[in-house]
What does this fold into?
Amino acid sequence: MRKSIMVDMDEVITEGGFLYLINDFLGANYTKEDIKEYYMQDLVPDKRAFFDYFIKHNQYDYCKLLPDVREVLKYLQDYYDIYIGTSYIIKEILQECGINLVHKHNYLYEKLPFISPENYIFISNKALLNCDVKIDDKLSNLENAKIKLLFTAYHNKDLDDAYLKSLGVIRVNNWLEIKDILVKELDNESSSTTK
It folds into this structure.
């Protein structure tokens, strides 16, 4: 039976769009290195004005796929069932954030056409999902997985490796590392079934 992978979208598949809009709104030049907290919008003094601006733009018009993500996901799809698990909820604009779901869906459909929209899961609490492998930049989203891969991002880079190891979490820095880990996992399984 094929194993399942849940892959987060923002800061794991894509990067840059939200920060671009913050910089454009503020007339600033923030980089990821300037951000210490999970919520980038905490950089903005007037959040209501920013989100009025935000909902008139599509952050995915300004983001890019991370290096190697398309090729690695396409390769892994031959061996795993891949699901994109992503939240579209933004706490400051609960009523209007449905537009974010549309933008996410359309971006995934265009950029990763080999993954069926039936495999998009729009969910905030990813701990509810049981998958064999989870790849996410938020530690709490890795719960209920056998293999937990924490994708290094601006807000988690200072988490101690010993602490992550105690939780059974493996830090990954890029998609080629992910491919290596998951290919080795396949090799280990095939060798254990042939013994």
About this structure: The chain is about 35% helix and 20% strand. The first strand starts at residue 3 and ends at 7. The chain has a mean pLDDT of 94. The helical segments are 17-26, 47-54, 69-76, 98-111, 161-166, 175-193.
